[in-house]
From TrEMBL:
Pfam families per the UniProt record, alphabetical: CBM_14 (PF01607)
Signal peptide: 1-16
Lineage: Eukaryota, Metazoa, Ecdysozoa, Arthropoda, Hexapoda
SMART domains xrefs: ChtBD2
Keywords: Chitin-binding, Disulfide bond, Glycoprotein, Repeat, Signal
SUPFAM superfamilies given in the database record: Invertebrate chitin-binding proteins
Organism: Papilio xuthus (Asian swallowtail butterfly)
GO molecular function: chitin binding
UniProt key word Protein biosynthesis: no
Name of the coding gene: LOC106117382
Identification of the protein by name: Uncharacterized protein LOC106117382
InterPro entries assigned: Chitin-bd_dom (IPR002557), Chitin-bd_dom_sf (IPR036508), Chitin_bind-dev_reg (IPR051940)
Annotated Chitin-binding type-2 domain residues: 27-86, 96-156, 161-225
A single GO cellular-component term on record: extracellular region
Amino acid sequence: MFFFATFALLAAVSNAVQVVPYGAVGDEVCKEYNTYYKIQGSCDSYVECNAYKATYKTCPDGLYFMRDVQWPTYPCAYPSDAQCEYNDQPQRAVSTADCKTQYGFFASPLATRSDCGKYRMCVEGKAFEMECAMGLAFNPETGRCDWPDLVPSCSAEEFLGFKCPPATYDEFGKAYVVNFSIQGSCHYFFSCMEGVARLLVCDRGFAFDASVNRCVDATKVQCQEG
């Protein structure tokens, strides 16, 4: 029992985030043959150890070091996928006329409360106007596409062009999920729960059957897109 407990503890320690002090120099920081070390106090600087040789690196502006990355996977990612600790600081941003940082996802000046799916992707300081998948809105707070009802800057009803009827509940107080077909669409439909609408799509090979208000085998549904 002691052996297994000790082994589990060692495994947990080996998988923990490895941090080196800011300003540490030399190959002596490399305690493993190939690995990454986070630099203390920094969101985006790290040490790469390759054959016990240390190389100090910094992620491109706008990207953060991923704490749980395994060598040799590229260790830098967007802030939505890599966290910056409370006391850590990123490098000084190199902004352009259209981008706050060289890399990142930002709110688009073309987006409105009723047209929330647009966002701006920055690559090497150049802005590209993008759009979320149908039915999703861009959330500037997380840098991700999300359900429109979860995005404060978006009016979900205006964006989707649909308003759910008042919610109904079963005897245990659980809200019923009610689906609604969309005219001219065989695969997309609105799903309402507690008065909140979300645009969903049937899986491949299925189509929405308005007679039963759910997705069924597409060969059993007479529907024409348009």
